Amino acid sequence: MKTLKEKILSEGEVHEGNILKVDSFLNHQIDIPFLKEIGREFYSRYKEDNINKILTIESSGIAIGSMVAQEFGCPLVFAKKSITKNIAGDIYLTPVESFTHGSTYGVIVSKCFLGKDDRVLIVDDFLANGNALNGLISIVKESGAELVGCGTVIEKGFQGGGDQLRKKGVRVESLAIIESMNSESGEIVFRD
Amino acid sequence: MKTLKEKILSEGEVHEGNILKVDSFLNHQIDIPFLKEIGREFYSRYKEDNINKILTIESSGIAIGSMVAQEFGCPLVFAKKSITKNIAGDIYLTPVESFTHGSTYGVIVSKCFLGKDDRVLIVDDFLANGNALNGLISIVKESGAELVGCGTVIEKGFQGGGDQLRKKGVRVESLAIIESMNSESGEIVFRD
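Predict the joint structure of the above. Result:
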């Protein structure tokens, strides 16, 4: 998506430790008119697939999920991250390792909101190692819902999570795939 | 807002400890077409006020904030919650007490994204004691931005936070105000 790549080049900041900061439009301040375009782009890629539920994970997936769900006219479910295991009710729970925080957290979805009648598109802001997506995928499978595919805004291709998923046969659509980036020069190279 | 009150009556569950569960459309599964109506309602109430930024707090404010920001055609900023005080960079940070979790957390907004040129509408899903809103308001004041008002979807009127803010002169628009609710009978009474 050309406008996204331009925005990453003009507003993104490359930091040490494979961090791309896009706080000005995606993670903290959110450029909603631009996110609407992103929602439309995912819709155009998945519109033939009878999707009836969007699944994402708190927090930074929620705004994207909202704009995508709007295009499909369907509900959004956001998975919650728990620190404690002290959760009541009938839930799907899967552990996910966080590289950013160096810890493991539980990803939770209530069983009421995901089941065998659902055709699910998973969306998120970033795809790096793929741990969060893998956690969401395992919840979709456990629920009996049909996983149609994944949509991520920025994929850090060099971290390999996206390609591993594709090898497993999961459809992954990323709107910008970064092949390499350099925190010293600030250079960002996209995959074509 | 009539459709909201109907939805609370048909889908909301009253639990002990003043808890109203609206997980099916507002907090976990999100009814995006309905949230679009909510966005339009806030727009109709604040459209004369030259708002150029929507501020909310993660996580459950983000979907609402996105739909409101869409109506105003402006950016959304979501405040982040920190557990530790170990945060880098130029930030506004204010402590907020959580009644739900019985702890204090930091509410954080990067200084880049809020300043004296902003006319801010704060939005959130719930207003109970008003602690989260008070935290966001103090950040808006510290930033030099103009606080135009607050918009909350559901106000638990009996917990008093909304009326305290109104007494201080803050404009607070809540789309449904609950006067009382009963966890045994499940009864919910709205303020007129």
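The CA atoms of residues 65 and 123 of chain B lie 6 Å apart.
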